[in-house]
Write a structure and sequence with these properties.
The chain is built from 6 helices and 8 strands; from the N terminus they run E-E-H-H-E-H-H-H-E-E-E-E-H-E. The protein is an alpha+beta fold. It has a 6-stranded mixed β-sheet. Strands 1-2 form a two-stranded antiparallel ribbon. Helix 1 crosses helix 4 and helix 4 packs across helix 5.
């Protein structure tokens, strides 16, 4: 994992410098959320600047939503990945995005499909936008906007998204119901990064393989309770050993609370 991160943005290339380190990770429960921390805000994200600019919170949420949405498409398209993911989860309901999409992914072909699928989304957004309730169509406030990665080929846009989520942040995939093998439907969403009155977020329910085959849905604890299918939530996790992963600006939020329950 990185000790320091340098990103220099130029028109068509990005240079990343990382120094390897493997300190002990502190879990969410071990973090003192009341202690003041210094946070190094992300320098770049694949969704910044759309619609007049986004706050750091908005760009993180929308990037997580894109990752969740893309993973849902890949798992729907290739059901065998669900079986492999069940094996790697081994009874757990969480797996880090670094394990899924990092340098040594536990399911290598899944990462390759993630990269090519995300590039399809970028290309579709660039050409005419994506309709039918998928991220980028602007049909609801919860939808991520099209990422400004046009012009990147050979899966470049996907690598930008992955680098943002695992190099500049600490994120993981949470499955409230685990992998549900009895249903092909997959819902994707992200942590809303606030508690909110109803503590919910907009998601997308994938039931078809077309790029736009997933209508918007409101993902709440009740939604999880009554829908017995796979639900994907990309969320941050805290690691006090990583400056980028302190998340002190969210000191009132325990990320593991979102959509927790006895499902």
């Amino acid at each position: 994992m990185k000790k320091s991160f340098l990103l220099v943005a130029v028109i068509s290339a990005f240079l990343f410098a990382c120094e390897a380190d493997s300190p002990e990770i502190q879990t969410e429960a071990e973090v003192d959320l009341t202690s003041p921390q210094t946070i190094e805000l992300s320098q770049f994200s694949p969704v910044r600047g759309q619609g007049g600019g986004l706050t750091p919170s908005e760009e993180l949420e929308k990037s997580m939503d894109w990752a969740s949405y893309t993973l849902a498409y890949v798992l729907f398209e290739t059901p065998s990945y669900k079986i492999q993911l069940t094996t790697h989860l081994n009874g757990s309901k969480t797996i880090s995005l670094e394990d899924l999409l990092g340098a040594t992914p536990v399911i290598p072909n899944l990462k390759s499909d993630f990269l090519s699928t995300f590039q399809q989304f970028v290309d579709a957004c660039s050409s005419s936008g994506l309709g039918g309730g998928c991220p980028g169509d602007g049909s609801s406030p919860g939808d991520p906007e099209c990422p400004p990665c046009e012009g990147f080929t050979n899966q470049g846009a996907g690598n930008i998204l992955i680098s943002y989520l695992i190099e500049q942040n600490c994120t993981e995939l949470y499955l409230p119901r685990g992998i549900v093998s009895t249903s092909n439907v997959i819902t994707s969403t992200a942590h809303p990064l606030d508690t909110g009155s109803a503590y919910h977020n907009t998601g997308n329910e994938r039931y078809a393989i077309s790029l736009s085959g997933s209508p918007d849905v409101g993902v709440t604890p009740n939604y999880v309770n009554i829908h017995n299918h796979t639900i994907l939530v990309v969320r941050p996790f805290r690691n006090l050993s990583e400056t980028d992963c302190l998340y002190s600006q969210y000191s009132d939020i325990n990320f593991t609370d979102f959509l927790q329950g006895s499902w």
